[in-house]
Amino acid sequence: AVSRRIGQVYSRLLDMASHFDAVVDWPDEDIEEFELENYERQLTEDRDTLRTLLRTFERGRVMKDGVTCAIAGRPNVGKSSLMNAILGFDRAIVTSEPGTTRDTLEERAVISGVLVRLTDTAGIRDADSEAERQGVERARAAAGSAMLVIGVFDGSAELEDGDRETLALIRGSERAVAVINKSDLPQKLPEKELQGFFGPVIHLSARSGEGVDKLCDTIGEMFRGEPVPAGEVLTNARQAGEISRALEAIESALEALETGAAADAVLTMTEEAMAALGALTGKNARQDVVDRIFERFCVGK
Ligand code: GDP
Q1: Angle at which helices 237-258 and 40-65 pack, to 10 degrees?
Q2: Three-state DSSP state, 104
């Protein structure tokens, strides 16, 4: 199903390129004039098709491998407790001693129908021992590559430097949720400190479990999405790479078209898109253009 869609887009681009080339190369033949505007709708549709395909790549990754999720926060905010609350059993070591979770732990859980691979990271802070320092580095790396970062804050304490770092981390990540933990205690954390974070903010108590369901629902909503038929999911990273290359080229072509660029400039970009898609389907764009010209137009006969 994926190659069929790619093939359709390729064939439409081929129509456009061969029409243009035929007009340029055979000016004396009776070929319908090439009007760039007539292809704007087609290019827009092709752009949307490729965008939809690329979105299935993320969905495919979610279905196959699960959502990688890092739980981040300074020591003692309750990361391990939260992980345990989510998993419903004791896998991570829960302790009141800061810095005990030296390394990262990974657990899989199905949260609201979505497979989530949770990593409890070592507390973000300036570590004194070498082992701890490495743990902190790994935590930052885990958060940097995760599809979702849960930034945990201790609602019963004032904001500290480590929290500011967590905040920067969740602001810079692809998708994030801020958890204000220890809601069973009086809140001291000034909420306005989370300014600049636009994702969901959830108050909960990892200790009592109150509010954990709300966090799970939020995660489910973020990743569940519409089910996609298995055959239409893009699973291959190389394919996804070529498709995004084609998509970028079509987006540039549309931009150029809107700003009134010359037809040959727009065509150069669509040919770049064809080359990217051709690399996936084993086609040679140049040769195909020539063939299509002879198929469609009565030229050189
Ligand atoms: P981590 O260092 O971020 O992993 O934090 P822990 O999960 O080890 O928790 C640090 C301390 O905070 C422990 O004493 C926990 O029992 C306590 N704690 C964690 N969550 C809550 C909560 O929701 N309410 C209260 N009152 N204490 C909590």
Answers
A1: 150
A2: coil
